[in-house]
Amino acid sequence: MENEKYLNDISEIKNLMDKSSRFISLSGLSGILAGLYCLIGAGLTYKIIYFDTTTLGNYGDLIITETTLLQLFIIAATVIVLSLVTAIVLSIRKAKKSNDRIWNTSTKRLLINFMIPFLSGGIFILFLIEKEILGLVAPLTLIFYGLACVNASKYTLGDIRYLGISMILLGLLSTWFLGYGLLFWALGFGVCHILYGSIMYYKYDRK
Fold it and tell me: pTM (2 decimals)?
């Protein structure tokens, strides 16, 4: 009886330490919705840049005008904003259900470690766009986002690490198959988010 109580105490202490060092209010449902937003965005992007099917897979023949760039920027910004708002709202709701604080030291560490590679990659990609090196944009978005997930994973749910690794691998494959960047982008940000979001939802959110 005493041994059982001792084990329960250890388990409770471990859970408290885990909560204090990791942001565990991340919602799996937000990952699923983010994936759906990305797939819709990828579909709209496809219609815009591949309006002429003869250019499919050939970045050299794509016609990217200022109007097209503006449309793509609006799509990307909309997807990012929707994904962020969804993640914040659902994480706050999850934290309230479990009586956890949404903003604490773990949250700060998570954001800092995520944003360093994420912002570095974003600035680098903007430079590539300015130089009209468009073929590497899709692979590098996947790679830098994957690095950001891996870097931040030690401060949140461990599943984020595997999501990041999947993104990095898809980014490297996309670099090899340069003509199909949009497809890999949809697989990474769309399908992988839905897959890992579903796994996280069934593992953590349904409890």
Answer: 0.78
At how many degrees (to 10) do helices 2-21 and 105-130 cross?
A: 40
Residue (of 54, 10, 26) closest to 155 by Cα position:
26
Give the chain's end-to-end CA distance (angstroms, integer).
27
Task: Please answer whether residues 30 and 79 qualify as being in contact, where contact means their C-beta atoms are separated by less than 8 angstroms.
Answer: no
- 26-50 residue pLDDT tens: 778 888 999 999 999 999 988 887 7
As given in the structure block, the two tokens for residue 199 are 């796994």
pLDDT at 95: 72
Average pLDDT of the chain, as a whole number: 79
Do the Cβ atoms of 23 and 155 come closer than 8 Å?
yes
Digit-coded pLDDT (tens) for 69-93: 788 888 888 998 998 899 888 878 8
Please, which residues have CB within 8 angstroms of residue 114's CB and are 6 or more apart in sequence? 148, 149, 151, 152
- Beta-carbon contacts of 195 under 8 Å, excluding residues fewer than 6 positions away, are 35
198, 152, 122, 77: CA torsion to nearest 10: 40
Please return the burial class of 186, using the count of CB atoms within 10 Å of its CB with bins 0-12, 13-18 and 19+. Answer: buried
Q: DSSP assignment, residue 186?
A: I
Give the chain's radius of gyration (CA, Å).
20
- Judge whether 25 and 100 are in contact, CB under 8 Å: yes
pLDDT per residue as tens digits for the range 50-71: 765 444 445 545 556 667 778 8
Q: Which residues contact 78 (CB under 8 A, 6 or more apart)?
A: 41
